[in-house]
Amino acid sequence: MKKIKYALAILLPGAALLILLAITSSKKIDIPKTWDMEEIKRFHLHPPNRNVKVKYVPEDIYYNLKEFVLYKNYPLYVKEYEPENYQDSLASLAPEIAVDFSKLVTEEDWIKAGKLVFNMPASLTPANTPLFLDSAFINLTGLEMLPDGEYPYGRYVQTPEGLMRGILSCASCHTKVTEDGELIEGGQGDFIFDRQFGFIVERFSIPIPPDPDGSVVFAPWVDYDERFKKWTSKDQKLALKAIPPGVMVRQGGGVISPIAIPSLFGIKDIKYMDRTGLMKHENIGDLMRYAAFNQGLDMFNKYDDYIPMSGFESHEQITPEEEWSHPFGYANRRYSDEQLYALAKYVYSLEPPENPNKFSAELLERGEVIFAEQGCVTCHPPPLFTNNKLLPATSDFEIPEEDKQELDIFNISVETDPFLAMKTRRGTGYYKVPSLRGAWMREAFFHNGNLASVEDVLDPARLEESYVPTGFKPHDLETMAVKGHPFGLELNKEDKSALVAYIKSL
């Protein structure tokens, strides 16, 4: 009997462990449905013109689109830095699925898979096609690379069709390389895709049409002034070359109103996404939907009778047999719900790098006092340093009654340039209050990235028409006032230095 009891004492813990493992492995992850029409209607804000009716791609058409396949991928290098026979060695490898989502169990498993999705290129071209990525091009555009010559904004992908060169991953726009060569995934991206494209079309005399139907840039319900109506193909090229690091063209805003790239650190706490608060963020499913829209599905939104994707008049024309691209992006492929869930888990897990700025306690204490005295704390209260609210783009924007009920609005305008919020397809009539966390590592401030530093934001000279913006400046303007957000402009030198130090410490 003692032997039996001893045997049971040994076996039972093992049996309990096996049972626990079985329960854990069989636990079903509750993955939100990405293309849930009721959720999409809830989370997507309306254009400022409330007479415009918006319809989204129907659920059955969305889920009939082909899914991206997540193959194993490899670093891409600037031409002179690529290891000898590197492409040949990659081409000799067999295609390999990077992750089996059915086997993911732990939170760490999903985050690791999400990092792969984050770096998964959405647009592939054969690796043997001409590559303009050489040192001369790097010097010409100011593009950053890693110390070993790696180009962190694209990847090689081995597929059943052969070795491909890939771009347009999440990492393409949300990767930053510091002056010291440190790679920061999730920081305000410094990939100058638009400037790169502008130099390529100039170098090889590639014509760019002026986008007459507005598929990339315009909202058809807006009457644009003569300045933009006169833009030519040359203007399109020059406009692209004018886009600095930290700013990029997005469909719906275009070269007329490029957008400062956000940092992804702490995004789990942010209630509205896009500079205009275009999409609500109340749960992980909303981040999944945001990624799906911004990978190209927003080009199929139907505004009254207008679909931005050139040549389309109805959603029924969307078929999985064809692939489409538009001048600044890619459309008609979708991530699986599992891929988007993993991606969202990874983005939520991102942590900022250590802040290299060191300030005295006395200076920071003084800066915190000034931060409160200047009213900064009203819109940027700790710990998030944003009140997570929307501000009307202009003081005369009439807030609809339904918005007062459904949105979190702080009814004060800081009177920055209203174009993006009022005259583009990304417009909502509002700008969201951004978080100041991580401001020390950004190089594009205000929604168009017109200012390159915190110091520039606090420089009163920017209000003058003779001012030359330190960030994005339209190619057809020599000077331009960067108006609005007047807080802290009248501080003396010492107080301004203290405020800058405090903001850069966040």
Description:
31% of the residues lie in helices and 11% in strands. It is an alpha+beta fold and 506 residues long. Helix 5 packs across helix 12 (337-349), helix 11 (284-294) crosses helix 12 and helix 13 (361-373) packs across helix 18 (493-504). The chain is globular and about 65 Å long. The chain has helices at 2-26, 37-43, 59-62, 86-91, 107-118, 135-141, 170-173, 193-203, 226-229, 233-241, 284-294, 337-349, 361-373, 376-379, 401-406, 419-422, 454-457, 493-504, and strands spanning 54-55, 73-77, 123-126, 150-159, 162-167, 175-177, 183-185, 247-248, 259-260, 272-273, 279-280, 302-303, 324-326, 329-331, 390-392, 430-432. A 4-stranded antiparallel beta sheet has the order 2-4-5-3. The chain has a two-stranded antiparallel sheet with strand order 1-12. The protein has a two-stranded antiparallel ribbon with strand order 6-7. It has 2 domains: 37-349, no CATH class; 361-388 and 433-504, Orthogonal Bundle (Cytochrome Bc1 Complex, Chain D, domain 2), CATH 1.10.760. 39% of the residues are buried. The model is unreliable at 1-26 (pLDDT under 50).
Give a quick precis of the structure.
This protein is of the alpha+beta class and 506 residues long.
User: What is the subunit arrangement here?
Assistant: single chain
Structural class: alpha+beta
Number of helices: 18
Give the DSSP E fraction (strand runs of 2 or more residues): 5-15%
Distinctive features:
alpha+beta, Cytochrome Bc1 Complex, Chain D, domain 2, two-stranded antiparallel sheet, 31% helix, 506 residues, four-stranded antiparallel beta sheet
